[in-house]
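Input/output pair, single chain:
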Amino acid sequence: MRSYRSAVALLATLTPLFASPLASDEGPSESDFLSRTRRLTFEGRRAGEGYFSPDGRQMVFQSEREAGNPFYQIYRLDLTTGDTERISPGHGKTTCPFIQPGTGAVEFASTHHDSRSLELQQQELDFRASGEERRYAWDYDPEMDIYVTEAGDARRLTDARGYDAEGSYSPDGQWIVFSSMRDAYNRELTAEEAAKLETDPSYFGEIYIMRADGSGQTRLTDVPGYDGGPFFFPDGSRIIWRRFDEEGLTANVFSMNPDGSDVRQLTDFGSMSWAPYVHPSGEYVFFASNKLGFGNFEIFIVDTAGTKEPVQVTYTDGFDGLPVPTPDGKQLAWTSTRHGRDGGQIYLGQWNHEAAMVALAAAPARNSE
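Output:
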């Protein structure tokens, strides 16, 4: 892992031009942290969740761009040549890709095994053609399972009834941590739980871990409310994820050991704070939150111990979320609607790690009361 200087030492190296905005009464701005921002994806209705290969030369992401399929499919982008290829089967719903360190294989979640896949695609196309509208919401399809593909061969790793998705590899490529809602289907529910399943299946989401071949599937969390979006720390020592309250109205960022012990809460925003990802330095966590307004998601950072108040990174109206740094920590990819349309696309900008360390050092202690 690359070593980083302390925030104290960095204060002395910052130029007066940069130091001035951070020291102003108005506080930091987006340009203090991000520069040379450019849009990476253009094709299709929307794209998002871009994750890098360990060498930073490739990105996998999800996008709605297939003729006849209104749902996400998984693509690999060669950041050197700009070439893009689809690596999922092309039908059904897919989400949450991640590249395996060491092999280049890609895990993702998919429903392509569902015999109703084509029927569901047509139903969605007909709805859109009708002119009717509905608010965008994620579909926790109980047929969603985790697959891994290498050289075009998609192999199924999970087959439990219930949504299995949001997977990512450990740094050594030996483990996958993921979210599952199988607990809503593998036992008899109470009347209250059955009603909850009808209105909010995500309530049953819990974090699981398994070996990269799908064996040893083990549950790590057991708290009411949606636990999901897990990733390993860069050194594999801990797992970061987000937990919703029982009503599904607010969420916060948590971390734990890979065996589920030593759970720590890093944020307490009283809003929806989600999509955490640890910077390669191990010093802080990126996440998105609508702290500033229900429909205005912005990117924040918080120290990995959760001792400080989070620092805002983006300042653009609309949606800015799903932040993921490059493996060298020098750039940041994220999903945004800053181009002025509803469907998000992936953006990439130069990341100022030094500014982040200074801002976090100056942030007040978190009030956890």
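The chain has six helices and 24 strands. The first strand starts at residue 34 and ends at 39.
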